[in-house]
Amino acid sequence: MELDLAMRKRRMFREFDGRPVSREDVDKLLWAAGRAQQGRPGVRHLIVVDDPALIKTAVQVLPGFVITVDPALIIVHCSDLGAVEVDNVAGDGISRIDTGAALAHLGLMARQLDLGTCTITSWSEAAVRELFDIPEHVRPDATVVIGYPIEKPRVPNARGAHFRPAIHHNSFHTPYEVQS
Ligand SMILES: Cc1cc2nc3c(=O)[nH]c(=O)nc-3n(C[C@H](O)[C@H](O)[C@H](O)COP(=O)(O)O)c2cc1C
User: Fold this and answer.
1) Domain 3-153 falls in which CATH fold?
2) Where are the domains of the chain?
3) How much is the pTM?
4) Does ligand 1 come within 6 angstroms of the Cβ of 121?
5) Mean pLDDT to the nearest integer, 125-129
6) Residue 49 C-alpha to ligand 1 middle, in angstroms?
7) What is the pLDDT confidence band of residue 155, given thresholds at 50, 70 and 90?
8) Does 154 have pLDDT greater than 70?
9) Dist CA 109 CA 107 (whole Å)
10) Does residue 180's CB lie within 6 angstroms of at least one atom of ligand 1?
11) In angstroms, what is the span from residue 145 Cα to ligand 1's centroid?
């Protein structure tokens, strides 16, 4: 799939058909997340959750994420806080940026594989730590639920305005006109 098509098809998916994700495709998703930018080496940790019982429990501790069929897979993106600080320069913000980059790669690779993802962050850190046995020095950043989507998400804002950032030209006060 061309990259721009994958971007066009990239949405947050909340309804899945329950089919499992092959090991080969799981590994492709992990590769994509791992290829994303990283301001500090050794910070990124990914937890692959494919145990159906654990997924069922996880969905229950992700409040606000209402689904009818459990996702086939959850990937938890974590940052090793012991590795983010280099030469006393705090890397906390950097690791947050890197998390977003990994999730973007993951979402695009998912579309190439006909999978859909939804990023979930509305959980208690303590609950996620306990569920996946995450040590103190590692921070869970985001959980990504993954499966074969059955629904096509509606564009929430007419004519794709949802996907149009405010763009400025040389100065914040001068708008940039996108021509194509
Ligand atoms: C960083 C981040 C955190 C999110 N957290 C949640 C969440 O906790 N619960 C949820 O239902 N959706 C969550 N979402 C999904 C957003 O609500 C979603 O981006 C919005 O529905 C727009 O989806 P779209 O990209 O398909 O237009 C999150 C998305 C992002 C990028």
Assistant:
1) NADH Oxidase (3.40.109)
2) 3-153
3) 0.91
4) yes
5) 93
6) 20
7) low
8) no
9) 6
10) no
11) 11
